[in-house]
Amino acid sequence: MSNLQNPAALNSINPLGFWDGAVSTLSRELSPQQFKTWIQPLTLVSFDESEHLLTIGAPNRFKLDWIKKTFADRFQELASQYFGLPINVSFVLDLDMGAPSVATPAALEILVAEPQQNSVVEAATSLDEGAFEIEDHSKLNPNLTFETFVTGKANQLARAASIQVAHNPGSSYNPMFLYGGVGLGKTHLIHAIGNHLLKEKPNARIRYIHAEQYVSDVVRAYQQKAFDRFKRYYHSLDLLLIDDIQFFSGKSRTQEEFFYAFEALLSNKAQVIITSDTYPKEMAGIDDRLISRFDSGLTVAIEPPELEMRVAILMKKAISEGIPMSEDVAFFVAKHLRSNVRELEGALRKILAFVRFHGREVTIEVARAALKDLLSIQNRQISVENIQKSVADFYSIKVADMYSKKRPANIARPRQIAMFMAKELTQKSLPEIGELFGGRDHTTVLHAVRKIAEERAHDGQLNHEIHVIEQTLKA
Ligand SMILES: Nc1ncnc2c1ncn2[C@@H]1O[C@H](COP(=O)(O)OP(=O)(O)OP(=O)(O)O)[C@@H](O)[C@H]1O
Fold first, then answer.
1. Cytoplasm: is it a keyword of this entry (predicted)?
2. Other C-beta atoms within 10 Å of 140: how many?
3. Domain 382-474 top-level CATH class
4. Whose CA, among 33, 283, 404, 424, lies 20 to 30 Å from 55?
5. pLDDT tens for residues 367-424?
6. Residues of the chain with CATH 3.40.50.300
7. What's the distance, CA 349 to chain centroid?
8. Among 44, 118, 39, which Cα is nearest to 74's?
9. How confident is the model at residue 116 (pLDDT cuts 50, 70, 90)?
10. What is the CA radius of gyration of the chain?
11. What is d(CA 211, CA 161) in angstroms, rounded to the nearest whole number?
């Protein structure tokens, strides 16, 4: 439809249309985990029609490097296809979101000035050991601090533990294992710890690394027979922050290397902080001895944000973008988007892009229009039947048990959870839900909804399970 043959026609194209199309194409091409990790956090920063240049923003340096390396060609292809002309795609660090006043230009300068060092081993082979000095290569994003982290019930424990570790690295909780669903602030918190320590001790040797990057470093070290350097570097850190360790699943050589690094660091009283999408014992494809190490310090969950916190996050981030959002608009968005902070940020970006492109004020109508696709996807996907199926899968029971009269606890409880989720996530009334659960009375549904809501408020494990099920519903 937009196969344009001349540059003038480019003007008639809305780059947001390209962006939505590209994102949805990639969501089909990649696994849900890859999509969430790499593509969802990206933003369309600008489109320069005269230069045929599309600029895409990544939220941190690691993601920026990885996207450039892995997805640049694909974006170029999609853009050229969409616009019908060769389009150049460039990638920048998008430091605007979430942390306005902190050194955006400086950070961009560092980015431009810094040679491309996609991995430690690459750096080790091309530069002398001095190149691993902490300030340049900690890979910390200076914007992710405790100050820019909005606190609420869902993350207060995780935040308190992180502050404690930031003040006493290596001595209080070691390792610290932070787990929770995607986009809930794990990466943010561990950067905050690193940034705090860096401020207190500018010479501390700190390194943030995404697990996927660590895996490719191991591969490279293996290929280049550079394990000595690799070990010397990792074993001598003061603080190692390793993100999304579930990516180690099934990678036994990486796990072995990490095991040695872990042991060396702990015996040096260096702090290790790990994040994952699930708690240690639930991790698949990870060696038992690593799992028991992960669980030997402090394991703390980060929960999905509650409504008020989602509102606070939206309002804070909107102000930092220079386009304040009223409380009623923030409530409207927060009520519809419940799963995680990254999703909220994505929604906010869409609203702000819409407002800028169309020169409108931020109103509920504008938010509804800007989020049209997002909202319809949510509404389409979440039906009581989907909930029953996802809950049954999660607890390994039969879908038929959702409507059966059986009452053993291993069936009754998932059924109550499914009823609770049906009330939370759909527009159905209590009698309608009762009907869909094998003709149960509405008071039975009400009882289940109240019971699970109450338990969820103080049972972190249950809250986590519900969140995981919600994620599968939206995947
Ligand atoms: N409480 C919060 N206050 C402010 N910003 C937040 C908060 N929680 C998350 N964010 C922001 O939401 C985005 C997603 O958070 P983050 O990358 O830390 O998620 P994550 O839990 O590491 O997810 P993943 O498992 O996908 O890596 C980031 O831009 C982060 O700054």
1. yes
2. 26
3. mainly alpha
4. 33
5. 999 998 777 666 566 789 999 999 999 999 999 999 888 788 899 999 999 999 998 8
6. 120-301
7. 16
8. 39
9. very low
10. 24
11. 22
> Residue 474 has what pLDDT?
66
Minimum-distance ligand 1 atom for the alpha carbon of 191: 18
Residues 6+ apart with CB under 8 A from 412: 406
The set of residues, in sequence order, having a beta carbon less than 8 Å from that of 107 and lying 6+ positions away, is: 93, 95, 141, 142, 143
Domain 307-380: which topology?
Helicase, Ruva Protein; domain 3 (1.10.8)
Taking every pair of C-alpha atoms in the chain, what is the biggest distance, in angstroms?
72
Lowest mean pLDDT among 129-143, 309-323, 460-474: 129-143
Highest mean pLDDT among 325-329, 378-382, 428-432: 325-329
Q: What is the 3-state secondary structure (H, E, C) of 306-339?
A: CHHHHHHHHHHHHHHCCCCCCHHHHHHHHHHCCC
Cβ of 184 below 6 Å from ligand 1:
yes
Ramachandran class of 250: left when φ > 0, alpha when ψ lies in -120 to 50, beta otherwise: left
Q: pTM (2 decimals)?
A: 0.64
Omega of the bond prior to 175 within 30 degrees of 0, cis? yes
Give, as one character, the DSSP assignment of residue 297.
S
ipTM of this predicted structure: 0.98
Mutate to test the pocket of ligand 1, among 31, 188, 244, 308 (most ligand atoms within 8 A of CB): 188
Which of 251, 262, 242 shows the shortest CA–CA distance to 286? 251
Terminal CA-CA length for the chain: 28
Q: Is the CB of 150 under 6 A from ligand 1?
A: yes
CATH of domain 7-93: 3.30.300.180
Q: Identify the residue whose tokens are 């979440």.
A: 382
Pick the CATH number of 120-301 from 3.40.50.300, 3.30.365.10, 3.20.20.20, 3.30.1300.30: 3.40.50.300
The closest-lying atom of ligand 1 relative to the alpha carbon of residue 189 is: 18
- For residue 191, give both structure tokens: 């950067």
Residue in the block written with tokens 């999905």: 304
Q: Is 345 touching ligand 1 by the criterion CB < 6 Å?
A: yes
Residue owning tokens 């922050």:
241
Q: Token digits for 336? A: 């519809």
Q: 209 alpha carbon to ligand 1 midpoint, in Å?
A: 16
HEC string of 124-182 equals HHHCCHHHHCHHHHCCCCCCCCCCCCCCCCCCHHHHHHHHHHHHCCCCCCCCEEEECCC
